[in-house]
Amino acid sequence: MLQGDGGRRVFVPMCGKTLDLKWLSDQGHGVVGNEVVEMACRQFFDDHNLQYTTQRIEGMDGTVFKATDIDLQLFNCDFYKLTSDVIGTFDCIWDRGAMAAANPEDREKYAQVIVPLLKPTGAYLLDLFELENTVFAGPPHGITDARVDELFASKCNIEVLMRADRLGDWQRSWGLESFWEVVRLLTPKQT
């Protein structure tokens, strides 16, 4: 997905101030993140000693934080209002917890926002968890293979890259007896 000499345009939804943003940038990719909390955007740039500018997002309520020395931007706005007209399309989407953090009742809306942001030749890394939602309400919220298929299979090919048992003391303290991380690679179906 990110092999080669960099130069891909990567989107990180609901990113907070994740270290992934800087790591992806350090690999030579253009990085665009989205975060609704303004303080997290400012802290990300401050934590990495990055100079930045801000400007209002044209046509919607929000602010773009742009690094001055590297190709990295954070869109401080409501994820569910993003469109390709606002942020463009991407070679890669790096979702390590955004969909897992989103409210389960918003998943269809989430999929409707995210899929159009992916270029026809793009790749979408989707890292989710399988867990007993009746025992632990989340976040992270569990999601089954069947639900992922319902949300994405009509528009994307879905490949499971990894399924790993992540049950530890922390998850047991939530009352869980199982906690699986499932990493999928989604690619747009060619029409």
Automatic annotation (TrEMBL):
GO terms for biological process: methylation. It is found in: Cytoplasm. Its EC number is 2.1.1.67. It catalyses: S-adenosyl-L-methionine + a thiopurine = S-adenosyl-L-homocysteine + a thiopurine S-methylether. Keywords: Cytoplasm, Methyltransferase, S-adenosyl-L-methionine, Transferase. It comes from the Eukaryota. Gene3D superfamilies: Vaccinia Virus protein VP39. Its main location: cytoplasm. GO terms for molecular function: thiopurine S-methyltransferase activity. GO terms for cellular component: cytoplasm. Belongs to the class I-like SAM-binding methyltransferase superfamily. TPMT family. This is thiopurine S-methyltransferase. The gene is LOC118410249.
